[in-house]
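Minutes, project check-in
Item: structure for the 805-residue chain
Input as provided by the requester:
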Amino acid sequence: MGRATFLIVLALAGEAMAAAPALDESAAKDGEWGYRPAAGSVSAVSPPALVWRPQKGIVSWEVQCCRGGECSDAAIAYRAEGIAWNAHCPTKVLPAGEYTWRYRGTDKSGRKTDWSQARTFRIAENAVAMPLPPREELLARIPKGHPRLFVRPEDLPRLRELAQGAMKDRLKGLEAQCAKLMKRPPPTEEPPKYPEGTVRLSDEWKKIWWGNRVYTINALDGAATLAFTRLLTGNEEYGVAAKRILMECAQWDPHGATGYRYNDEAGMPYASRFSRTYSFVYDLLSDDERAVCRNVMKARGEEMFKHLCPRMLWRPYESHANRAWHFLGEVGVAFLGEIEGADEWTWFAMNYFACVYPVWCDDDGGWHEGSSYWSSYIDRFTWWADIMRSAMGIHAYDKPYFSKAGYYAMVLMPPHKRNGGFGDLAADRRAEQYVPLVSALAAQARNGHWQWYVEQMGGPAETGGYIGFVRGSQPKVTAKPPDDLPTSRVFRGTGQAFLNSTLTDAREGVQVAFKSSPMGTQSHGYDANNAFQLSAYGEPLLVSSGRRDVHGSEHHRLWMWNTRSVNSITVDGQGQVPHSASSKGRIVAFHTTPAIDVVVGDAADAYPPLDPNDPGAGGILERFTRAILFIKPDLVIVYDRIAARRDVSFEYWLHAPTEFAVKGQRNLEVRSGDAACAISLLAPEKLKLTQTNRYVPEPRPNVKVREWHFAAATPQKARSVQFVTLLRPHRAGQEVPRGALLQATAGGYVLRATLSEGRVTVMLPGDEPSRGGPMSQGPGRIVIHRLAADGSVVQSLTVDGQDRR
């Protein structure tokens, strides 16, 4: 090699070294999953899944997990390399203790980034063991033959025996379904696309959008039912009918009216039900017919995979995609080894489950999108949980979330409650509607409390159809009354608290629901922060208002997503940033006892900036803390402290299903059925009161609900205000104690109020620290003394409700 050549090679080598990729370690933004486990966190599973920021130009990743507070070769407890995506669940359990993890990437030229910053976390002593087996081992667990979804080939003899014995009645139910399908087969002509000129969200659009979903399910779930029942009974007529429906639906354009990207509400059930039918009827298909099915699902699977992976591993907060991933998983399992890419689809679904899912919750069991979407989405997920267990031996219900999920229903929707709390489509929900899902959760998690819950409403409900048959052999769970549970509970990760006087029967108690969420107002959990709802004796009294006519309509966007539609506060007529992950609240204090509950939320960050052209100027509010004190069962105190960065007006909103009787700000009442609530706005004075039963904008004519909206506005602009409101829920016709005295002090307020039995004295903190004296309670502290009729102390409680920003 000549000197010139040597110098060129040396220069190129130096250039290559100099061009080694820099690692992007920028902080996670709203809508991103974030680095996990986060520094300082405690993992309830072992091993914890590792997730980091994706980066263009990186083709593989390497991770290290070290014992102790720093990473070194000597301390490595686990390492892996050649990782394709920016998420990895280790393959082995790590003992409890302190660990530090880091990662680095490699580009296509083999150049490595520097190691990332090290993040130290702890694995809890009682962490649940949930390693993810290596890819090849996991995929090898899936049967080579069929069926593969819900059941394995070797399960069939046992199921056939049960069908002729202990589960004969369930088989009769399946055969009754099949008889109807044989007598009146579902149509299989390809459903229509939207006609040219169809306006999105119009009634015509909605009819086709949702109608094609129902049409697809009727056809292909009918086929799956026929095919599964044939596996149990050997009735070949069922199999022939299932095969015919399958092959006729296989003629539909994969990217047409039922394509995932064109209409995911039709595309998702097509993917899952087609895959189930294919696997159940596999032995009846010729090679040519199998090839047709594989070509169809290759196109559909690739479209879904391209949309979901790897984006969802870092940006998972998309509603529909949080069920699409496990429907893609069904396709992957059904066609593993038969379609190129099916292994990737399956592996992605398992990584999403292990590293990210579920996203709209915390480990305590809450759900950001509300109880209606919780019920719908978790119910669908239970199908995938069944498939993971049967096909791969992975037990979904070992995850901490699933060990707590049923408590969400129990405290939000005690037996016989109406109104499903916050979130889309929740207003008209009833507790009885959660019986099927909680029945399934109780059986899978073996939870006696949840079993008790469903038994109070006639349950447990048996899952129907072929899925119900597979689940039918589960052992019975012994019911356990909630006597050992607190009646109230907080879900901090979703910023929701439910304060109940009883869990046994909503018709005999009072509930206050409260929201101040770090997940903001995004997706279907759009209710503004520091909002509350009140129900009593089986009736909703103070509610989140509006009804969704169609998702994204003007009424939905401009009324229901607006702060004025809920029981919260607007500033100069302006609400919180609507429908946004950046519109954050948080619960800063929660305390529950049998007689008194307290929750405090902070929602100042949810409001827009003071100057839209200067984000650095800060938000329009410096503080908005709302404290709710529930003196069970007949007094609720709502205390708001708000401070703005300029003089503004403040509007205090309340909404009810019936008209407010208004005799002044200290004498309001709302009635609903057999329940009522007396309302007193004790501070500030001279509020401007208005009420209307109009929405702006109005919903479409098909929505017949007409609620009432009450607003109390400050009489003049100011920089700060404190609202003190008393709510006295009671049975209609019941005599209500009215005595209440509010006194301003150097440290805030002293409130004295009569109860149906005894009285209560409450010290509420002001904006300035207390100057001392007999009523001093310290800055931010709420002090409650509950007294009996004879003056003896029933309970004293001090709660630090300070906004520690």
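Outcome recorded: The first strand starts at residue 42 and ends at 46.
No further action items on this chain.
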